[in-house]
Specification:
Largest sheet: 5 strands, parallel
Number of domains: 2
CATH superfamily of the largest domain: FAD/NAD(P)-binding domain
Strand content: 25-35%
Shape: globular
CATH architecture of the largest domain: 3-Layer(bba) Sandwich
Helix content: 25-40%
Radius of gyration: 22 Å
Oligomer: single chain
Structural class: alpha/beta
CATH topology of the largest domain: FAD/NAD(P)-binding domain
Strand order of the largest sheet: 5-2-1-9-21
Distance between the termini: 53 Å
């Protein structure tokens, strides 16, 4: 029996597995001939880009709802190592070490928030990197009114003003007010501060989009601190690189992403995000029988630009990686991935959103209209079918690139 092993069930991993299952179905290969197996740390496909929201009830999809109907086996376990020469993956499954053999590997273990050695970061900071992290932050905010009164009790400092930091910051005033209202607190106002070491908040978005972001932050009452970094964190707040201490009961760390450290096992040169290079077929350059997709992989998507660490690229990378892993195993022609469009839609909380097109991020919609597109993406477009219908699930993994999302007026 052939063995296709997919590591990870995020946006790239899940769609790699479904893409592989779809290819087997297309080629009329039964699961008795080739088995697709997924290893994931838990039983969920996480809609990671929604972890900053107040209601996390719909941000996870059970793997058995997607993989069981299409005959993909899945295992809950932590990947501990990869032996590329002997085509084996070491996993910790229920506390026991197991070795999983494979004929083709799809490496899709994603990324994690960058955690520098800042004193107090591990002990006192929150994040929205995972479902568990987002839930922990929301629980903490809900219980703030129960804590003894202190300076900064209802102050939150968000560190890092990239896309995740901005989206997190714009949701926090509402979260704080809701917590205070539920507790019957009427005195005092919540305070949210967005800090970044770069000279401009959201600088990667371009000048015009930055003006839109500034307008939204100001209207929501979010304060900004640019050109500063955080030197230390403790239970009472954050100390800036300037020496200034900001009393705050809540610090949220959003300072960028880095590929899963197991990319270091591959005999390749990684980029500054720790990603491994793949060709247009999602095959790891110079490594036999191995594909990679999503945040662990760096692909040139349009002949010029490298893929970005987002679901926008992870999902098609996964679909093509899974399809091509099957083709490679069966000796069939593989399909190259090319993505000619690029959009960015940044959620700006109750103010709305900003929608840009192209790598220069030309603004095409703002406010409520852009928010409708953002909600369409986050709440519908990036989800797998939840019908448990085998045909619908397989069809959703066709090795194609979706057209850009609609613009609303």
């Amino acid at each position: 029996m052939g063995r296709i092993l997919v590591l990870g069930a995020g946006f790239a991993g899940l769609w790699s597995a479904v893409g592989a299952a779809r290819a087997l179905d297309e080629f009329r290969i039964s699961r008795n001939e080739v088995q697709v197996t997924v290893v994931n740390r838990d039983a969920w496909h996480a809609i990671r880009v929604r972890n900053y929201e107040a209601d996390l009830g719909q941000v996870r999809v059970a793997l058995d709802d997607v993989l069981d109907p299409i005959g993909v086996k899945w295992i809950t376990g932590e990947v501990a190592g990869i032996d590329l020469a002997h085509r084996q993956v070491a996993c910790a499954i229920r506390g026991t070490r197991h070795l999983l053999d494979y004929d083709r590997l799809v490496f899709a273990l994603g990324s994690q928030v960058v955690r520098p050695e800042v004193p107090g970061l591990a002990e006192y900071a929150f994040d929205v990197d995972t479902y568990e992290g987002g839930a922990r932050l929301n629980t903490h905010i809900d219980t703030l009114p129960e804590q003894p009164s202190s300076p900064g009790q209802f102050t939150v400092v968000v560190v890092g003003a990239g896309l995740t930091g901005i989206e997190t910051a714009t949701e926090l005033p509402g979260k704080l007010r809701a917590a205070m209202s539920r507790a019957g607190r009427v005195a005092g106002a919540p305070r949210v501060i967005l800090a970044d070491h770069r000279p401009m908040i959201g600088s990667d978005m371009g000048e015009y989009a930055c003006r839109v972001i500034d307008e939204a932050l100001a209207s929501l009452g979010v304060e900004t601190l640019a050109g500063v970094s955080v030197g230390a964190i403790d239970a009472s707040g954050a100390t800036l690189s300037t020496g200034e201490k900001i009393p705050a009961a809540t610090i949220v760390w959003c300072t960028g992403m880095r590929a899963n450290p197991l990319t270091g096992l591959f005999p390749v040169t990684r980029d500054r995000f720790g990603r491994i290079p793949v060709d247009s077929f999602m095959k790891v350059e110079g490594v036999n029988d191995t594909f990679a997709a999503g945040d662990v992989a760096c692909a040139v998507v349009d002949g010029q630009h490298a893929s970005v660490m987002s679901c926008q690229h992870a999902r098609p990378m996964g679909r093509f990686a899974g399809h091509n892993a099957i083709c490679d195993f069966l000796g069939r022609p593989m399909l190259p991935l090319r993505i000619d469009s690029y959009v960015t839609i940044l959620d700006l909380g109750p103010w709305g959103a900003v929608y840009t097109e192209g790598w220069d991020r030309h603004v095409v919609a703002t406010g409520a209209a852009a928010k409708r597109t953002k909600q369409l993406i986050n709440c519908e477009r990036i989800y797998p079918p939840r019908s448990a219908d085998r045909r619908q699930i397989l069809d959703a993994a066709a090795p194609i690139v979706q057209i850009p999302p609609p613009q609303f007026r």
